[in-house]
Structure formats: structure tokens, C-alpha cells
Amino acid sequence: MVNGKKRNAPVGQKSYLATEMAGWAACSSRPLRQTSKRLVLRLKYCMPRTAENVLQELQQGRYAPVYFLQGEEPFYIDLLAGYIEKNALSEADKGFNQVICYGKDMPMGTLMNHARRFPMMANRQVVIVKEAQEIPDLAREEAQKLLENYVTHPLSSTILVLCHKYRCLDGRRPLAKALDQHGVLVESKKIYDNQVPEWVATYCRGRGFKVSNKATVMLAEFVGNDLNRLAGEIDKLLLNLPEGAEITGDTVQQYVGISKEYNVFELQKALIGRDVVKANQIIRYFEANPKDNPVIPIIALLFAFFCKVLVAYQIPDKSDKNLASVLKVPPFFVRDYVQSLKAYSLEKVIHIIHYLKEADLKSKGIDCGSATDGQILKELVFKILH
User: Fold this and answer.
1) Whole-prediction pTM value?
2) pLDDT exceeds cutoff 50 at 296
3) Are 246 and 282 contained in the same domain?
């Protein structure tokens, strides 16, 4: 309250206070000691921001002095660093005021010299450190103290970006807390396999294209949760489509390198229908084209499918809606699992999972003798169908 008027909190503070109030409300029924312990733990650890929120700020032209981008998923780290590299400076200013280096070549002292340098005939400079996890002395106390001091008192004319991939700082350390309090600390987490179809749909919509459910699942199962590769495959596909077109399953098969008749999805369909002739035709095609059809991903996809069949056996309510919810699959794929329940007994499904485990070990050189990938797949399919 100021001069009888209500004073609003800043935007960042407001969201933090709202979060804390929600936390108090959620735990109000708990004992006071348990509640206070929970809040103390939350204050003890840093709270990284999401890549999506930071990207929105960058698109609005709001730049912070320090960005520390960390985590197991490199896609968002590259996305944010790439946006800053492309947009923070004009082309005329980049020649003298943009430094892009790699961590292994940049001890902390040298990095701080770059960060504390003033821009030349420009309002600001950009320093981007790629592979920052490889900074030679980053694990040392002295180097972390140097960076902590800079983060606490940064040079306002410098945008310092550290791309710390595949790992995270210890949130209890002073450096992580300083980055969280005075800079922008982003944690880029790997998404789960069941979240990939939705990510594909969101990515395509963001590019101005529609996408069918079948296409999202095909891309997710064919590529996996490697977002960099997934985005690359989608971008390649979109180059061949008119603006605003819909991506269908046929489009994916045509442009992503999935054979329409001989691919892992058709193999799975043949196994579900116990079609021996079709399954062996596909296996022979895989054997003749090993580079386009590596055995390990094929086994992994079949393993994931039959594991869900095993889960389906244990679900009392086998209605389509409930199976889709529990198995976390689109409703139109439920019929594959229903058909598999009819085609394979519970005992057989357990044996199939064991066969897949054996094949996976053989594909990685364990107890395989001189068997080729094609022979491993032939043996696997024979065991599943007989």
C-alpha cells in the first residue's frame, strides 16, 4: 500500500508469489513443521525456467545479460543460442561484437575477459560459448567463483550465453543459485516417448502446417525422442509441401525414407495378423537394405509394442477408451492391441519379450557368433510366429 493506493508487484515477482500462495493452499492441511520444511527445501534449490518462456522474451526483444542453458536435451539449447546469435545484433555489428567459441578452448579467465570487454561502435556485444560443459576448469572452485562474481555483477552491454549440454549444475551450489537469481537459468529436459507425438503436432502447427494423428505417431516411432533429428526430418518434409498443407501418413512414408510396403510398421502389422509370408518378405527387404533398416531400432519398436500388449493383458477394463488412456496411445491404434490380445496368449507374449531381449543382445555382439543382423531378425520373427 503506497499513499492509500494498492501497489502491484512486478510481473516476475507476481508469478512467484502466486506460486507460493498456491503452495501454501495445497499444503495448508499438513502440519506446520511439514509445511515449513517443504518451503525451505524449495528455497534451498534453484528453479530453472522453461525454454518456451525464454524464447517468447527473446522474440519480444527482451535480452538478459547472462544465459546458462543446460540439460540433457540439446534441441532447446541450440534453439535459444541460435536465436540470440541470429537476432541480438545487426549484421553490421556482428563483425566486431559477436564472439562464438567452444568450451574446450576457453578457460574461465579468458572467457571473463571476453565478457567484460566493451562493445565496439555498438550498444552491446554477444559472447556464445558452445559445449560449455567442456570448459577446462569449470569444475574448479576458483573458476566457478569467477563466473559467480560475473553473474552477480554482469556487464550490461554484454549478452553472455553458455551452452552446457547433456548435464546440469548442482542446484545446491552457489553458482547455480547465482545464475537462477541474477541470470537466466534454463533446464532442457528430455521428453518422454509418449509426449513425442504431441511435440510433433505442436512443431508442425508452429510452422503453419496441419498433421494427422497417424503421421505424428509414425514420425515419433520412426525417429524417436531425438528432437534435433525429429525437427530435421520434419523440416525436410515441409520443403516438399505447399504452405498450410496437411502432413499425412503417406507424406511421411514418401519423404522421410520409410518404404511404403517394407517398414517396421508393416512388420508389426504382419506380426499382429500372424502373416508369415508378409513378415518374411519384409525381413528379406531389411536384410538387403541394412543401412536404411538398422536392426536395433526395429527390435526396440517391437519390444515397446509387445510390452504394451503385456500391460493390456493386466487391464480389467479392455474398452477402447480405457486401453488408449492406460497405454497412452491414440485411440485409432487401440485395435492393434486388441487384435494382438486375440492372436497371442499371455504366456506367448512373455516369451516374445524374452526373444526380443535375446535378439537385442545378439544385435549388440553378445552371444551372436557370426550371425548377421538379417539372420538375427529372421530367427526372431520365426520364434514370434511359431
Assistant:
1) 0.66
2) yes
3) no
